[in-house]
Amino acid sequence: MNNTQNSKILIITGSAALFGGVQHWLSYLYPGLKSKGLDVCVGVVEGPNFNKPEPFINEFKYENWTIIKCLTCTPEGRARAVMKALLAQNPDLVLGVNIADTYEGCLRARTKGWHGKVAMTLHGIEADYYDDIKRTKHVLDAVVCTNRLTCKIVEDVAAFEKSKIFYAPYGVLIPDSPNALATISKKKEIVVAYSGRLEQSQKRIHDLLKIFNKLDEKNVSYKLLIAGSGPEEIQLRNAFKTHIQKGKVKFLGKLVPTELGEKLYLQADILIITSLWETGPIVAWEAMAHGCVVVSSEYIGSKAENALIHKRNCMKFPIGDTKKAAEVIEALFDTPELFVRLNSEGLKLVNNRYSRSKSIEAWINVIDKLLDLPPNKALTEKYWRHIPQGRLDKFLGCSLAETVRLILVKKFMSKGPGSEWPHAYSKIPPYSEQFFSEVSQIENQLENEHKCDE
To answer: Whole domain around residue 437: which residue ranges?
Structure first.
């Protein structure tokens, strides 16, 4: 049964980040779903200081969008704003994208007569997301994951029903003419690209300096192109100051998805990934599609996905092993035939599994199944109690206090995008040791199952 034709989808997302992987994913998913006959609207959250919808909407050219505005920055205000948007749009399906208040808003809309479905789209491997799933599972109709490991974590750690967990991978545009540099045998230097957020906790960005210092010790001639920005950018630029002066390292700043091909991938031979975890990453599939060879850490999420295979279609090294990373880059420089083979196999992988058409097809299938699910019976139960945000809440209660704030046009001064519109409500640290210990065990189990299948 195909339920997707003419169905209305509301995708609720943040507006603070313009160039991250999630924004890149949404930039192709939106037109892809519309091309299949769905009525798609992007709900973009707005706050007083950090979440500004206009640059986001202008960058990605969304034809159909609505602003979900909350100036008080309170949980009560955000839940009301989401509920109001749902009642105005009346979608058949809501897809939440890293906006925690989506689910309280959906629950409230159901008490007002809205009968649509709601799914969380999961783009991270951080403990607080999975704790939120556990606490909101009576509201959620489904969770849609972009990685095989995250599907299993949702089932095992968040105790979510397996039949309501779906997989739909990221996809990338495959150019008509991939990088013509299919060999590096005649090159005097190897060009390495990094693309992503410049931060340490997930991306382990400071491993780059150690890797390229080791290449200097080996007298390997290289150029490193760094695309992206983030909280560690100034520190990283300072660390690479001498390299920059020598012309070995160049920072390209933020690049929009349409610029990455020409300004980064087509200029490079290799893409380097140093991450602790990834649910794609999109940059790996993009690089392969453009003819780059991927050199990657064995990031959490890579084993279960069973896509990046060492010496088959990429080169890998243990997380944080900067010596090994330098060695595999040097091996590619010294072994042109290996480079050519990995280049070819990487392109095959993307064509077979991670093209945009494959991703959109997977999402259409998932949405069809979501729309066919039985109605959610959870109508009135609230999944957490709102914590008083100030004296008004304590004296009047959260609901009445929010009404007073709106009358007085009283705004909270938020500390960052996440305090205006949080990604998660859980107080569990995203990088909880216990969580990552569980995740590692789950991934090892899945890897062993892959080996048995082979």
So the answer is: 1-171+356-454
In this predicted model, what pLDDT tens digit does every residue of 349-399 receive, in sequence order? 999 999 999 999 999 999 999 999 987 766 545 544 555 566 666 666 677
Rounded CA-CA distance 190/213 in Å is 15
Per-residue burial over 327-353, b if 16 or more Cβ lie within 10 Å, else e, is bbbbebbeeeebbeebbebbbebbeee
One-letter amino acid for residue 276 of the chain = L
173-187: pLDDT as tens digits: 998 765 544 555 556
109 and 244 share a domain?
no
The answer to whether the CB of 149 falls within 8 A of the CB of 299 is no
Angle at 88 between CA 86 and CA 92, to 5 degrees: 50
Longest pairwise C-alpha distance within the chain: 75
154 and 247 belong to one structural domain: no
Domain count, the chain: 2
Spatial neighbors of 105 by CB under 8 A, at least 6 apart, are: 78, 79, 80, 81, 82, 83, 85, 86
Which amino acid belongs to residue 83?
M
Question: What CATH code is carried by the domain that includes residue 372?
Answer: 3.40.50.2000
- C-alpha closest to that of 93 among 379, 424, 369, 377: 369
Q: Do 49 and 123 lie in a common domain?
A: yes
**Which pTM value belongs to this model?**
0.91
Let me know whether 18 and 165 are in one domain.
Answer: yes
